[in-house]
């Protein structure tokens, strides 16, 4: 006698609607980038070794269509591409595109991995990442209900390492010889793994507020 | 390099990286303070590597948060 087959599992739910991000901090605006946002600055950054080497990304000569095609690869659900702009009323001239975040979500495990590039060198050393990532941590923990944030900078990406340490992330490990160098054939690069948990972030913010400090370090 | 020499060089390197007079730096100065931003940190790490004539290890990169940390890396003590 044959047993009744168990019911088929329900089809996967329809893809969530595109997640449009728009956040403002004291000095910056963060918003989802679309292919229409492709611009010459991205082309310049992709070709600038000072910008891409710390990220272990090869130098690329891109056309505007390449940039548009690249932007289209972000589904804005699992991979969010978010531009960083100066904002009206901040310390800088408004509406200047200065960098990007790529947030890679794993919705099954409720994690997000942060990647950031400040392409406009005028804004290096201006604590852009500390200020803007604070807003994004609030967003991923409080709105998206992510349960862990991850950062994985190359060990020699000194500004990135600074930012993770200054923001209070926990070093969870050093991944030795974890990646092939995009710039020096045959060389392998070490990488750190930093983590931030929601309660840890809230405690850090509360401690900073009690000390009379804002998001900036 | 003696501890005293290391301390003097550490102070010089940190002051140059933070682009501030040496007498503005105290034992309490630490990573994330007003002048110790990401760009200053990069200048500091590169200056230490130049002084040591080698690249820093991942452990050393993580260890540097204060003036005394710079001295320790320079003197290996």
In short:
Chain A has 217 residues and is of the alpha+beta class. Chain A is built from six helices and eight strands, in the order E-E-H-H-H-E-E-E-H-E-H-E-E-H. Chain A is globular.
Q: Can you describe this structure?
A:
The complex is a heterodimer of chains A (217) and B (77). Chain A is an alpha+beta fold. Chain A has helices at residues 40-46, 49-52, 64-72, 128-143, 158-167, 198-210; strands spanning 22-24, 28-32, 79-86, 97-106, 111-118, 148-151, 170-180, 188-196. Chain A contains six helices and eight strands. Residues 9-18 of chain A have low confidence and may be disordered. Chain B is mostly helical. Chain B is built from four helices and no strands. Chain B starts with a helix and ends with a helix. Chains A and B meet through helix 5 and strand 7 of A and helix 2 and helix 3 of B.
- How many β strands of chain A by DSSP? 8
Radius of gyration of chain B equals 11 Å
Structural classification of chain B: mainly alpha
Strand content of chain B: under 5%
Structural class of chain A: alpha+beta
Measured distance between first and last alpha carbons of chain B:
10 Å
Residue share in helices of chain A? 25-40%
Helix-strand pattern of chain B, N to C? HHHH
Describe the oligomeric state of these chains in a short phrase: heterodimer
Based on CA inertia axes, which overall geometry of chain B fits? globular
Catalogue the unreliable spans of chain A: 9-18
- Please state the CA-atom Rg of chain A, rounded to the nearest Å: 19 Å
Average pLDDT, all residues of chain B:
95
